[in-house]
Fold Chaperone/heat shock protein Hsp12.
Amino acid sequence: MSEPGRKDFTTKAKEEATPDSSKSTQQKAKETVTDTTDRVARGVKPDEQKSGTQAAFDKTQRTHDDQQGGASSIGDKVKGTLGVGQKD
């Protein structure tokens, strides 16, 4: 089970398993918005403050994002803006 305010694991798995070619434009747009929202939420809360399952899932997603061109930088930008995780 995912944390409050996060995309549910089963929803994410279903979205990944469904080919884009069989999704409507509305479905693709919704997934883009919810994925971005989830990335922001993932970046705001440090892994140490997450459940073990959520932390492991987030690490996997960050690795995937990095391999796809660094989409995780959204979370880094949010952290930078909020001053989360910065070392003095």
